[in-house]
């Protein structure tokens, strides 16, 4: 398992992407997986920075390869609950001028990953998002 802490700042995204790329490369996983994992992590990292600004705690990201799956866990402490699995998808049937763009990134995240799970622990106010992506070697 690879594990690292990142400052909760949008400027950390470059380091996060390097972390993802290094993991994918070191595990001989198809490069196409990198794009999906990057998209999902980018969206969630950005949301946690923008919409959970009260915490100064670093974000913990761990990655593991189990069989034919990449598992990414993003954990943040000192935050309020925000269950991304419950965010409604965008209304694609609404006229463009009335569409709300909120939720589009989370929708895309759920579409490109094979499984997205959320857990919240009241003690420590700890939020964990688990992303799973299947791959072929």
Order of helices and strands: EHHEEHEE
Q: Strand order, biggest sheet?
A: 1-2-3-5-4
Number of helices: 3
Beta fraction: 25-35%
Helix content: 25-40%
Termini Cα gap? 18 Å
CATH names the topology as Heat Shock Protein 90
Mass-distribution shape: globular
Low-confidence sequence ranges: none
CATH C-level name: Alpha Beta
| Count of distinct structural domains | 1
Q: What would CATH call the homologous superfamily?
A: Histidine kinase-like ATPase, C-terminal domain
Largest sheet data: 5 strands, antiparallel
Whole-number average pLDDT? Answer: 87
What is the number of strand segments? 5
Protein described:
- By secondary structure, the chain is an alpha+beta fold.
- The protein has a single domain, classed as Histidine kinase-like ATPase, C-terminal domain (Heat Shock Protein 90), CATH 3.30.565.
- 32% of the residues lie in helices and 28% in strands.
- The chain has helices spanning 13-26, 31-51, 104-112, and strands at 2-6, 59-66, 69-77, 115-121, 126-134.
- A five-stranded antiparallel sheet has the order 1-2-3-5-4, covered by helices on one side.
- Strand 4 (115-121) and strand 5 form a beta hairpin.
- Helix 1 (13-26) packs antiparallel against helix 2 (31-51) and helix 2 (31-51) runs antiparallel to helix 3.
- The longest helix is centred in the first third of the chain and has 21 residues, at 31-51.
- The protein is globular.
- The model has no long low-confidence stretch (mean pLDDT 87).
């Amino acid at each position: 398992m690879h594990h690292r802490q990142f400052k909760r700042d949008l400027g950390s995204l470059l380091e996060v992407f390097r972390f993802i790329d290094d993991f994918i490369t070191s595990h001989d996983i198809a490069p196409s997986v990198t794009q999906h994992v990057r998209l999902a992590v980018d969206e969630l990292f950005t949301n946690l920075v923008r919409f959970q600004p009260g915490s100064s705690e670093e974000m913990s990201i761990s990655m593991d390869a189990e069989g034919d799956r990449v598992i990414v866990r993003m954990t943040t402490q000192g935050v309020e609950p925000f269950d991304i699995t419950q965010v409604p998808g965008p209304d694609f049937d609404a006229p463009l001028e009335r569409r709300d763009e909120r939720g589009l990134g989370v929708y895309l995240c759920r579409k490109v990953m094979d499984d997205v799970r959320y857990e919240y622990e009241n003690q420590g106010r700890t939020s964990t998002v688990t992303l799973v992506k299947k791959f072929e070697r």
